[in-house]
Design goal:
Elements: E1 6-11, H1 19-33, E2 37-40, E3 55-56, E4 84-88, E5 91-95, H2 98-107, E6 112-117, H3 119-130, E7 135-139, H4 155-176, E8 179-184, H5 191-199, E9 204-206, H6 214-226, E10 232-237, H7 244-247, H8 255-267, E11 271-275, H9 287-305, E12 311-316, E13 319-324, H10 325-328, H11 340-347
Parallel strand pairs: 1-2, 1-6, 6-7, 7-12, 8-10, 8-11, 9-10
Antiparallel strand pairs: 2-3, 4-5, 12-13
Helix pairs in contact: 1-9, 4-5, 6-8
Bound molecules: 6-O-phosphono-beta-D-fructofuranose.
């Protein structure tokens, strides 16, 4: 069994606050504990198409990056070496360049790669591992929708950002007696919406896991009015399922505008919409995310040191563990409609529109 001397690190998929904290932790542990060389691979596995773009990461390179959002390595959510899109003679073609990627990693002297990414990046890692690349995964997404880990870093920061926004919306909603909608990210899961909705004291939360009707929301607004509450704050997950009557306009507008217009028509009240978008992916990671990211980075290096490849670090019962990447990919973690979090929200009068 050959000794590990050099590792590569790459970040793939959408960025999340805490990526730099993982890179810093992995680089520090690799150099300080094991005296390995670390190569930073730019823009996910795309960086291995042009190996000359990869560069050594020293302790100096990771100094000061802990509180920084984004990733110093760059990322892409399009790159897949098995389906690499390129333009040849003016036409888009898709090629499998996975062999080149593996050859180039060997040319760089890389013995193993730590890949920090979400479900898509881990699937690519699995396919590269099947072709002989030594890989270890670190899960990442602000959506917190990976089933193999209780929490992903980036989620807590996104929650903080969304909660801050809801707090700010609250006072203007109350002053103007309006219905205010805040649309948050989360892809097909409602974790950011339900978390920030509860934390920000929202009155209605719409998530992909719970189908809703406009009528129920309007009834809830009317009920609040009858109690003298002339404003309503609604948090909508970007992946919420539109009721059938609004679906045909789906492409025309952001989901919250469609829902907002329908609620305005049903309540005869002013509705304003704020779509938070990529603000939730930026900014300095919270202490929770910095700590989790640091633990993940160090744990990934330990897996490499044990040559325990094909695994992804994860958090289970507050402990850092590892799972087979093969068992981790493709299984989305959704909010349970009748789970404790949803029941807690209902118990304090939050309406899910159902
Ligand atoms: O998965 C993270 C995420 O921010 C989702 O919440 C969102 O749906 C998506 O990525 C946005 O992706 P893009 O950056 O490609 O617009």
């Amino acid at each position: 069994m050959s000794e590990i001397r050099c590792i590569g690190i790459c970040t793939g998929g959408g960025d999340a606050p805490g990526l730099n904290a993982v890179i810093r932790a992995a680089v520090k542990a690799a150099i300080l504990k094991y005296n390995w060389t670390v190569i930073g691979i730019p823009d996910g596995f795309d960086g291995l198409i042009w190996p000359e773009k990869s560069r050594e990461l020293t302790l100096k390179d990771v100094s000061g990056i802990l509180p920084r959002g984004g990733t110093i390595l760059g990322t892409t959510n399009r790159g897949n070496p098995f389906h690499y899109k390129t333009v040849e003679n003016g036409e888009e073609v898709t090629r499998d360049i996975s062999d080149e990627v593996i050859t180039n990693s060997r040319k760089l002297g890389i013995d193993a790669v730590i890949t920090i990414g979400g479900d898509g990046s881990q699937k690519i890692a699995l396919d590269l591992a099947a072709k002989g690349m030594n890989l270890v995964g670190v899960p990442k997404t602000i959506d917190n929708d990976l089933s193999a880990t209780e929490v992903t870093f980036g989620f807590d920061t996104a929650l903080q950002t969304a909660t801050d926004a809801i707090d700010k919306i609250h006072t203007t909603a109350e002053s103007h007696h309006r219905i205010m909608i805040v649309e948050v990210m989360g892809r097909d899961a409602g974790w950011i919406a339900i978390g920030a909705g509860i934390a920000g004291g929202a009155h209605v939360i719409l998530i992909p896991e719970i189908p809703f009707t406009i009528q129920k929301i309007c009834e809830h607004v009317a009920q609040r009015e009858s109690f003298g509450k002339r404003f309503t704050v609604i948090v909508i997950a970007e992946g919420a399922q539109l009721p059938p009557e609004l679906r045909e306009n789906r492409r025309a507008s952001a989901i919250s505008n469609l829902i907002g217009n329908a609620i305005s028509a049903g309540t005869n009240k002013d509705v304003r919409v704020s779509v938070l978008g990529h603000i939730q992916r930026g900014g300095s990671p919270t202490p929770y995310d910095r700590i989790l990211a640091t633990r993940f980075g160090v744990a990934a290096v330990e897996l490499v040191a044990k040559r325990d490849f094909g695994k992804m670090v994860c958090l289970r019962s507050e402990r850092i563990e590892a799972v087979q990447i093969a068992d981790a990919v493709g299984i989305m973690k959704a909010v349970k409609p009748d789970g404790e979090l949803a029941r807690t929200a209902r118990a304090i009068g939050i309406c899910f529109g159902d």
